[in-house]
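Notes continue from the previous slide.

Worked example: a multi-chain complex. Inputs as given:
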Amino acid sequence: MQRDKWIVTKAVTIFLLFVGAVVAYAVPHEPRLLRCLRPLLVIERLANVRKIFGSILMSIPKIFTAALLLVRC
Amino acid sequence: MRDCVPAYEPPVLAAANSMRSGAGPSRSRGGSLAGIVGGDAARAAHFTPVSPAARRNERRRGSSGDRSFGQFHGSGRGLSGKRLSREEQLQVDHNEFNDHFNRLARPLLPRQSSKRNVRAPRTLLEGLSEADAVRLAAVYMKDGVHGRTILHRTDPQSLKRYHVYHGKLWKGFVVVVGFAQLLLASVEPTAGWLSDERWSNTTTFILELVCLAIFTFDLALNLSFRFMNRKLLVRLSSGVVRCYRRVSLRVLL
């Protein structure tokens, strides 16, 4: 199940990067925000990096809660 | 007869009785199932199942209407009034359960396919030659070592693609291509002070398309040997058959 999600993520990322490349070629001086998706293709292929990335994603809500508490205190 | 021990009632019969005693065909299935686990179960336990066929047979014999098969065995006596032993009682229970199951629940089950003679393999390696079985077993061992799913195709061509995809050479090549695509950001025209004038927009565009083509081929290679949304029936060592969508060797061991 988890692996299937990564495959879907990879397919969507490739499609978005293709669209971004075409747009960047047509409009050269616009900022290329879709470039930030490129690391996902490498992350998907490396199993250990994939685990660490998934752990970071899972811990984002708790990090956000802790940051919110720090800001309010 | 009524004050004797209540007759054994299998769950299928309880469902049928609760449906019979309920609101009829308009009652939902959820309500019927809720009746099994709820108060209807106790009521159903005291209800002696009498099928229409049994009632017709009783009428032909000329006996009273409330004397039925279930009441006979519920009292521990057979049809001839003879006291039954425990084994005979269990046999009667099983026969009655099978009879009612075939009559009530069997029509509700999905029909088998027309290929009744084609038997599904019981194990993952059944039906293969010795060499293919050893190769497939090696692949499954690799899956277990690396924690991958074993839901992939097992024909020789698919196994070749599997070895290519998970091989060090192709994997390293794809990772190098990925890092090259990441490094493209440093030479593109929009890279700010890092941008190189020798790398035009067209060059970086073509290089990125090549990288994306390689990643697309990598994705297609992955999808070519794996099942998507496929379920696998696994017979565990305890004999229980379970359905898994993602199976690792941890499940089988």
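Summary box: Strands of chain B lie at 232-235, 241-244. The first strand of chain B starts at residue 232 and ends at 235.
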